């Protein structure tokens, strides 16, 4: 059976619609025919400063949200990245294979360090894509379901896999990104040129899965739309309306074309009002289920422990192989 792996950072109290439509929904679908590993990327989270208590809480909230959206721990292994030491260990080996200039070309680092300036960014933020390559390669997956912003990191991962395989012996599989075009980049509601992001979006720009449903409805109704009044998908001319159509289409399994027809001759206001209702209907049960799961920490801990055991077994076997290839002497 083809293998699948992906991760998400516990960098906010809630996942948002970009995370869900860009990646997490595919996680749920892919469990049917694959044996996935999904992890909560706490090592990645600390590339920017985190409050320890908050990070711990968010890690458990992330696990609860994954279960609430339909990740089944019998089919999928859900684990916390820092609990599987092979990730950090393999990352060092991958760092020694990565060119400095190659790492410099990663646009996410440029984006994320732009605000405070490169000098203020951590070295961890700089080497983040290399840790990500280690995360992925350890599990030898066929597919990595992610949003568009991760495409460049997946290319680096494949380059590093290939480099390792040719320098030593064939050890890693070259993974394919699994990116659904329609929902690969959900935009910020207030700034439709930018992607919706846990750490960069303003509160009004982001629909959080765990927001009060009435708050989410209000955000949809106040989303920035474009000049003109025609409801039409046009990513260049009408990025705001197009983003709303994308979200609407994904949540209702209606094609964008059908939505354009439905709203022909009606204004943006109607579209927003109806989408707000759709969003409320979608997030209400999700939110209830997540809060329920958060009340049973023993269950969450048990799910994460089961995931950790399975992940550790696979990752450690690959790491042992990697260490041997590199020329490290195995302990007696
Ligand atoms: P941060 O701002 O802390 O980086 P994030 O919102 O980018 O948070 P991540 O945890 O980095 O979320 O990414 C989790 C997954 O969600 C990745 O697969 C990423 O590609 C996807 N993703 C994130 N934002 C979007 C978006 N706006 N549209 C589509 N997919 C997205
Ligand atoms: Mg991100």
UniProtKB/TrEMBL annotation:
Provide the reaction this enzyme catalyses. Answer: tRNA(Trp) + L-tryptophan + ATP = L-tryptophyl-tRNA(Trp) + AMP + diphosphate + H(+)
Q: What class of enzyme is it?
A: ligase
Record InterPro entries: aa-tRNA-synth_Ic, Rossmann-like_a/b/a_fold, Trp-tRNA-ligase, Trp-tRNA-ligase_bac-type, Trp-tRNA_synthetase
Cellular component, GO annotation: cytosol
**EC number(s) on file:** 6.1.1.2
One of the Pfam families matching this protein, by short name: tRNA-synt_1b
UniProt-recorded Gene Ontology molecular function terms: ATP binding; tryptophan-tRNA ligase activity
Motif mapping: 'KMSKS' region: 195-199
UniProt keyword terms in alphabetical order: Aminoacyl-tRNA synthetase, ATP-binding, Cytoplasm, Ligase, Nucleotide-binding, Protein biosynthesis
Chain positions recorded as ATP binding sites: 9-11, 18-19, 147-149, 186, 195-199
Sorted alphabetically, which CDD domains does this protein's record hold?
A: TrpRS_core
Q: Which Gene3D superfamilies does this UniProt record tie to the protein?
A: HUPs, Tyrosyl-Transfer RNA Synthetase
Q: Does the keyword Aminoacyl-tRNA synthetase apply?
A: yes
HAMAP family the record matches: Trp_tRNA_synth_B
Summarize subunit and interaction data from the UniProt record for this chain: Homodimer.
Functional summary from the UniProt entry: Catalyzes the attachment of tryptophan to tRNA(Trp).
Family per similarity comment: Belongs to the class-I aminoacyl-tRNA synthetase family.
- Report the protein name in the record: Tryptophan--tRNA ligase
Q: Which organism is it from?
A: Nocardioides flavescens
